[in-house]
Amino acid sequence: METYDVLKSWGPGCHFFGYGTATDMDKLETLLEQESESQRDPTTPPILTLFTEFPSNPLLHSSDVLRLRNLADKYNFLLVIDDTIGTFANVDVLPYADILVSSLTKIFSGSANVMGGRYVYNF
């Protein structure tokens, strides 16, 4: 939740859909439709990026990444997927992501004495 707090407090703002359920996806799609209409407030920045974990931590919810990919293409925003929990060995979400990110800290060391991460641009 720290990323959410930082974006709300100091960034351009954000929307939070916590579970990635079909209901959340419907709410997201409604928001994107409203944002794309000509009545949108020009002083409000458009939605530029959607971040999701696949699966989520700690509840292991999995968003419909195909639907997210289609929405990203339709509404022209980047889709960033964090596959830290599933790992690249167990889930293949790169075909759906514009950017794939992972924490590698636990892979490098279980003692929490190193830090590591990766990002993959899928362009």
Descriptive notes:
- The protein is α/β, with parallel strands linked by helices and 123 residues long.
- β1 (49-53), α3 and β2 form a beta-alpha-beta unit.
- The relative contact order is 0.12.
- The chain has a domain at 46-123: Aspartate Aminotransferase, domain 2 (3-Layer(aba) Sandwich), CATH 3.40.640.10.
- The protein has a four-stranded mixed beta sheet with strand order 1-2-3-4.
- It has four helices and four strands.
- It is globular and about 50 Å long.
Question: What distinguishing features does this structure have?
Answer:
alpha/beta; 123 residues; Aspartate Aminotransferase, domain 2; four-stranded mixed sheet; 16% strand; single chain
Short description:
The protein has 123 residues and is α/β, with parallel strands linked by helices.
The neighbouring-strand order within the major sheet is: 1-2-3-4
CATH topology of the domain at 46-123: Aspartate Aminotransferase, domain 2
How many beta-strand elements? 4
Q: Sketch the topology as an H/E string, one letter per element.
A: HHEHEEHE
Low-confidence stretches: none
Largest sheet: 4 strands, mixed
List the helices and strands and how they pair.
Layout: H1 2-10, H2 22-36, E1 49-53, H3 65-75, E2 78-82, E3 99-103, H4 105-108, E4 117-121
Parallel strand pairs: 1-2, 2-3
Antiparallel strand pairs: 3-4
Helix pairs in contact: 2-3
